[in-house]
User: Which sequence fits this backbone?
């Protein structure tokens, strides 16, 4: 079950240290229930074996905490989001009780690690991206106040869960219709068009992910 591996004393200690931020603007999608929200996806890419990723969100301290699985090597993540879906902190767990990676931002594009080290190469990023789950695309989709036909370009920190390498990439998000978004990575020249539900959560990405729950 999602969340069970995260309930050990040491991991709960890390979760309890995450601090919230003030809300940002609301968006056109339905609000999530304060009791929480869940979603899961199955990979359908022929380039890799089938796996599942999932996310469970809960409302606490005037913001959202998202705990998710990435379907690879039992990797799990925790994202702390403001009420307006602005990422504040990111924790990645693989084999240890302590996080293998812990990044935080001042929400003005400056990123650092828990030990205080400034990650200058990530300056300007507003979002985190994991290639193994579509959830990280749901975050800008819910946050960006775009009308149909409009686009926005954002900088994201793409995290490789196997190597812990992080690269800064530029992505363009276009609201094609109220239920369809197109996102384009300028670095990889890859374009994806995805359908979303009434909450702005991705239903499917062609040849990549399919919503399960």
Assistant:
């Amino acid at each position: 079950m999602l969340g069970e591996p995260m309930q050990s004393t040491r991991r709960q200690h890390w979760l309890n240290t995450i601090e919230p931020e003030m809300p940002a603007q609301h968006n056109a999608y339905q609000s999530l229930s304060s009791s929480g929200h869940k979603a899961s996806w199955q990979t359908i890419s022929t380039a890799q074996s089938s796996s599942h990723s999932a996310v469970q969100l809960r409302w606490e301290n005037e913001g959202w905490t998202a705990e998710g699985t990435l379907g690879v090597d039992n990797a799990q993540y925790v994202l702390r989001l403001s009420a307006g879906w602005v990422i504040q902190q990111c924790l990645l767990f693989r084999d240890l009780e302590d996080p293998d990676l812990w990044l935080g931002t001042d929400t003005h594009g400056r990123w650092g690690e828990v030990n205080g080290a400034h990650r200058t190469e990530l300056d300007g990023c507003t979002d985190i991206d994991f290639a193994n789950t579509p959830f990280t695309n749901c975050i800008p989709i819910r946050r960006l106040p775009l009308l149909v036909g409009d686009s926005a370009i954002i900088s994201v920190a793409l995290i490789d869960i196997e190597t812990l390498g992080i690269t800064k990439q530029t992505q363009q998000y276009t609201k094609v219709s109220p239920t369809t978004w197109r996102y384009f990575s300028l670095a990889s020249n890859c374009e994806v068009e995805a359908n979303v539900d009434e909450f702005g959560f991705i239903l499917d990405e062609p040849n990549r992910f399919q919503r399960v729950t």
Q: What stands out?
A: The mean pLDDT is 87. The radius of gyration is 16 Å.
